[in-house]
Amino acid sequence: MPVPDEMRNRVLADEDATVAFGRELHDAVRQYFGDTATVYLHGNLGAGKTTLVRGFLRMMNHVGAVKSPTYTLLEPYRTACGDVFHFDLYRLKSPDELEFLGFDEIFAGPGYKFVEWPEQGTGWLPPANVEVSLSLHKPANTAGDAQQMQREVRVRFV
Ligand SMILES: Nc1ncnc2c1ncn2[C@@H]1O[C@H](COP(=O)(O)OP(=O)(O)OP(=O)(O)O)[C@@H](O)[C@H]1O
Ligand SMILES: [Mg+2]
Fold first, then answer.
1. pTM of the model
2. How many Å lie between the centroid of ligand 1 and the Cα of residue 51?
3. How far is the CA of 57 from the centre of ligand 2 (A)?
4. Which protein residue's CA is at the shortest distance from atom 24 of ligand 1?
5. 50 lies in which domain range?
6. What is the tens place of the pLDDT at every residue in 24-59?
Protein backbone atom coordinates (compact mmCIF):
# COMPACT_ATOMS: atom_id res chain seq x y z
CA MET A 1 0.00 0.00 0.00
CA PRO A 2 2.62 2.52 -1.00
CA VAL A 3 0.31 5.34 -2.07
CA PRO A 4 -0.50 7.37 1.02
CA ASP A 5 -4.23 7.03 1.71
CA GLU A 6 -4.86 10.73 1.39
CA MET A 7 -3.39 10.74 -2.12
CA ARG A 8 -5.33 7.86 -3.63
CA ASN A 9 -8.43 9.79 -4.49
CA ARG A 10 -8.82 13.51 -4.20
CA VAL A 11 -10.81 16.42 -5.57
CA LEU A 12 -8.60 19.19 -6.95
CA ALA A 13 -10.48 22.46 -6.66
CA ASP A 14 -8.46 24.50 -9.14
CA GLU A 15 -5.32 24.59 -11.24
CA ASP A 16 -3.14 25.40 -8.22
CA ALA A 17 -4.44 22.30 -6.46
CA THR A 18 -3.39 20.17 -9.44
CA VAL A 19 0.11 21.71 -9.31
CA ALA A 20 0.27 21.08 -5.56
CA PHE A 21 -0.79 17.48 -6.10
CA GLY A 22 2.00 17.04 -8.66
CA ARG A 23 4.44 18.23 -6.01
CA GLU A 24 3.11 15.75 -3.47
CA LEU A 25 3.21 12.98 -6.02
CA HIS A 26 6.89 13.67 -6.57
CA ASP A 27 7.70 12.98 -2.95
CA ALA A 28 5.62 9.82 -2.80
CA VAL A 29 7.08 8.46 -6.04
CA ARG A 30 10.65 9.25 -5.05
CA GLN A 31 10.15 7.65 -1.69
CA TYR A 32 8.79 4.45 -3.15
CA PHE A 33 10.53 4.09 -6.54
CA GLY A 34 13.67 6.19 -6.17
CA ASP A 35 14.74 8.28 -9.16
CA THR A 36 13.30 6.03 -11.88
CA ALA A 37 9.63 5.38 -12.60
CA THR A 38 7.17 5.21 -15.47
CA VAL A 39 3.99 7.16 -14.78
CA TYR A 40 0.93 6.76 -17.00
CA LEU A 41 -1.34 9.81 -17.04
CA HIS A 42 -4.89 8.90 -18.00
CA GLY A 43 -7.55 11.50 -18.69
CA ASN A 44 -9.30 13.30 -21.49
CA LEU A 45 -8.13 16.37 -23.36
CA GLY A 46 -7.79 19.18 -20.83
CA ALA A 47 -8.06 16.92 -17.79
CA GLY A 48 -4.97 18.47 -16.18
CA LYS A 49 -2.24 15.94 -17.03
CA THR A 50 0.36 18.49 -18.12
CA THR A 51 -0.51 20.71 -15.15
CA LEU A 52 0.29 17.82 -12.80
CA VAL A 53 3.66 17.26 -14.50
CA ARG A 54 4.41 20.96 -13.96
CA GLY A 55 3.90 20.53 -10.21
CA PHE A 56 6.12 17.43 -10.18
CA LEU A 57 8.86 19.40 -11.99
CA ARG A 58 8.52 22.35 -9.61
CA MET A 59 9.37 19.99 -6.78
CA MET A 60 12.56 19.15 -8.70
CA ASN A 61 13.38 22.87 -8.81
CA HIS A 62 12.57 23.28 -12.48
CA VAL A 63 11.56 26.94 -12.79
CA GLY A 64 11.02 27.29 -16.55
CA ALA A 65 7.96 26.65 -18.65
CA VAL A 66 6.39 23.23 -18.95
CA LYS A 67 4.90 22.99 -22.42
CA SER A 68 2.64 20.36 -23.78
CA PRO A 69 4.64 17.99 -26.00
CA THR A 70 1.61 17.28 -28.17
CA TYR A 71 3.43 17.89 -31.46
CA THR A 72 6.94 16.90 -30.45
CA LEU A 73 5.77 13.76 -28.56
CA LEU A 74 8.54 14.34 -25.99
CA GLU A 75 9.75 17.20 -23.83
CA PRO A 76 12.87 16.27 -21.84
CA TYR A 77 13.97 18.08 -18.66
CA ARG A 78 17.44 17.75 -17.18
CA THR A 79 17.11 19.06 -13.65
CA ALA A 80 19.61 19.20 -10.82
CA CYS A 81 17.38 16.61 -9.12
CA GLY A 82 17.36 14.18 -12.06
CA ASP A 83 15.83 13.70 -15.48
CA VAL A 84 12.18 13.89 -16.43
CA PHE A 85 10.82 12.80 -19.81
CA HIS A 86 7.34 14.05 -20.57
CA PHE A 87 5.63 12.20 -23.41
CA ASP A 88 2.32 13.02 -25.05
CA LEU A 89 1.35 10.25 -27.46
CA TYR A 90 -1.93 11.81 -28.60
CA ARG A 91 -0.64 12.27 -32.15
CA LEU A 92 1.30 9.04 -32.38
CA LYS A 93 0.26 7.08 -35.45
CA SER A 94 1.57 3.68 -34.43
CA PRO A 95 3.43 2.32 -31.39
CA ASP A 96 6.30 1.29 -33.74
CA GLU A 97 7.11 4.96 -34.19
CA LEU A 98 8.34 5.05 -30.60
CA GLU A 99 11.17 2.71 -31.43
CA PHE A 100 12.21 4.66 -34.54
CA LEU A 101 12.42 7.76 -32.37
CA GLY A 102 14.81 6.01 -29.98
CA PHE A 103 12.46 6.19 -27.05
CA ASP A 104 13.31 2.64 -26.01
CA GLU A 105 16.65 3.93 -24.73
CA ILE A 106 14.90 6.51 -22.60
CA PHE A 107 12.63 3.95 -21.00
CA ALA A 108 15.61 1.68 -20.33
CA GLY A 109 17.50 4.46 -18.52
CA PRO A 110 17.02 6.39 -15.29
CA GLY A 111 14.60 9.24 -14.71
CA TYR A 112 10.87 9.80 -14.40
CA LYS A 113 8.89 9.09 -17.57
CA PHE A 114 5.43 10.63 -17.74
CA VAL A 115 3.19 9.41 -20.51
CA GLU A 116 0.01 11.20 -21.56
CA TRP A 117 -2.25 9.02 -23.74
CA PRO A 118 -0.43 5.78 -22.89
CA GLU A 119 -3.22 3.85 -24.65
CA GLN A 120 -1.58 4.98 -27.91
CA GLY A 121 1.59 3.10 -27.05
CA THR A 122 -0.04 -0.17 -26.06
CA GLY A 123 2.16 -3.16 -26.82
CA TRP A 124 5.30 -1.09 -26.91
CA LEU A 125 5.40 0.92 -23.70
CA PRO A 126 6.83 -0.71 -20.60
CA PRO A 127 4.25 -1.24 -17.87
CA ALA A 128 3.50 1.62 -15.51
CA ASN A 129 4.87 1.87 -12.00
CA VAL A 130 2.32 4.57 -11.28
CA GLU A 131 -1.12 5.07 -12.81
CA VAL A 132 -2.73 8.47 -12.45
CA SER A 133 -6.26 9.18 -13.69
CA LEU A 134 -7.70 12.67 -13.93
CA SER A 135 -11.35 13.37 -14.63
CA LEU A 136 -13.75 16.27 -14.45
CA HIS A 137 -15.55 16.82 -11.17
CA LYS A 138 -18.66 18.92 -10.75
CA PRO A 139 -18.40 21.07 -7.62
CA ALA A 140 -21.32 20.85 -5.23
CA ASN A 141 -24.09 23.45 -5.66
CA THR A 142 -23.19 24.41 -9.20
CA ALA A 143 -24.77 23.80 -12.56
CA GLY A 144 -21.57 22.13 -13.74
CA ASP A 145 -20.70 24.65 -16.44
CA ALA A 146 -17.53 23.69 -18.28
CA GLN A 147 -15.64 26.68 -16.82
CA GLN A 148 -16.54 25.72 -13.27
CA MET A 149 -15.45 22.11 -13.44
CA GLN A 150 -12.91 20.90 -10.92
CA ARG A 151 -10.82 17.76 -11.28
CA GLU A 152 -10.70 14.44 -9.49
CA VAL A 153 -7.46 12.49 -9.32
CA ARG A 154 -6.84 8.82 -8.58
CA VAL A 155 -3.40 7.32 -8.07
CA ARG A 156 -2.27 3.72 -7.99
CA PHE A 157 1.24 2.38 -7.47
CA VAL A 158 1.63 -0.87 -9.35
N1 LIG B 1 -8.12 21.16 -10.59
C2 LIG B 1 -8.43 21.92 -11.66
N3 LIG B 1 -9.61 22.60 -11.70
C4 LIG B 1 -9.91 23.35 -12.77
N5 LIG B 1 -9.13 23.51 -13.86
C6 LIG B 1 -7.95 22.86 -13.88
C7 LIG B 1 -7.54 22.04 -12.79
N8 LIG B 1 -6.33 21.51 -13.10
C9 LIG B 1 -6.01 21.97 -14.31
N10 LIG B 1 -6.95 22.78 -14.81
C11 LIG B 1 -6.99 23.44 -16.11
O12 LIG B 1 -7.22 22.48 -17.14
C13 LIG B 1 -6.70 22.97 -18.36
C14 LIG B 1 -6.02 21.88 -19.12
O15 LIG B 1 -4.90 21.45 -18.39
P16 LIG B 1 -3.74 20.56 -19.04
O17 LIG B 1 -3.18 21.19 -20.23
O18 LIG B 1 -2.84 20.24 -17.92
O19 LIG B 1 -4.56 19.27 -19.49
P20 LIG B 1 -4.06 17.96 -20.25
O21 LIG B 1 -4.76 16.83 -19.59
O22 LIG B 1 -2.58 17.91 -20.28
O23 LIG B 1 -4.65 18.15 -21.72
P24 LIG B 1 -4.15 17.51 -23.13
O25 LIG B 1 -4.67 16.11 -23.22
O26 LIG B 1 -4.79 18.40 -24.13
O27 LIG B 1 -2.65 17.59 -23.15
C28 LIG B 1 -5.80 24.13 -17.99
O29 LIG B 1 -6.44 25.33 -18.41
C30 LIG B 1 -5.69 24.08 -16.50
O31 LIG B 1 -5.58 25.36 -15.93
MG1 LIG C 1 -1.21 17.64 -21.79
1. 0.96
2. 6
3. 14
4. 45
5. 5-157
6. 999 999 999 999 999 999 999 999 999 999 999 999
